[in-house]
Specification:
Order of helices and strands: HEHHEHEHHEEEH
Structural class: alpha+beta
Number of strands: 6
Radius of gyration: 18 Å
Length: 185
């Protein structure tokens, strides 16, 4: 079995679209609400009736010609609180191959997290003002077929060549996003 997370064309296409989403979020800047995206095969979008010709032209110019290439369609900004719960209540039509999300978080070393007060509001204030805090933006993508990809940018190293990437970097968020593709009873 190949251990390369980008071994399949679908996984490679997911990595490309997640990087594009992250770069778009970087152009918007920091302190932005989480954003949700539907990931749809570009070839399907180009072939749809009613797609304006200028949009279809833009899609054609960005398309690599493969059936795996994905286009991100922004859905909406989401509330930052209870994000995982909101994701668990989403459902996608069959035409959507995957989904992606951008969200900003504050991370601290485990020893700082262990010192945080138990009250959630006090803990947030403590962590938010701690000198060891790091602001990060996550762009997380999943495909219905199970592939995942994440791009991570820190505010301290806010440059396109300083973005960390990999599969399953944020398992909780990845699983919550993947849950939006679970069959509906």
């Amino acid at each position: 079995m190949d251990d390369d997370p980008l071994a399949s064309p679908a996984a490679s296409a997911l990595a490309v679209v997640v990087r594009d989403i992250e770069r778009s979020a970087a152009r918007v800047g920091w302190d932005h609400a989480p954003s949700l995206y539907a990931l749809v095969p570009t070839r399907d979008l180009i072939g749809q009736q009613g797609v304006p010709s200028d949009v279809a032209g833009q899609l054609r110019r960005g398309w690599d010609g493969t059936p795996f290439h994905l286009s991100a369609i922004i859905q909406e900004d989401l509330p930052d609180d209870e994000l995982e719960e909101v994701l668990g209540h989403l459902a996608w039509p069959d035409s959507v191959a995957g989904a992606a999300l951008t969200v900003e978080r504050i991370i601290v070393p485990p020893e700082v997290e262990a010192q945080a007060p138990e009250d959630p509001d006090e803990a947030l204030a403590f962590i938010s003002s701690h000198p060891s805090r790091t602001d990060v933006r996550l762009a997380v993508g999943v495909l219905r077929s199970g592939e995942t990809w994440t791009a991570v940018r820190t505010r301290a190293f806010d440059a396109d060549d300083q973005v960390g990437q990999g599969a399953n970097l944020v398992p909780g968020l990845t699983q919550a996003l993947m849950a939006s593709f679970a069959p509906v009873d």
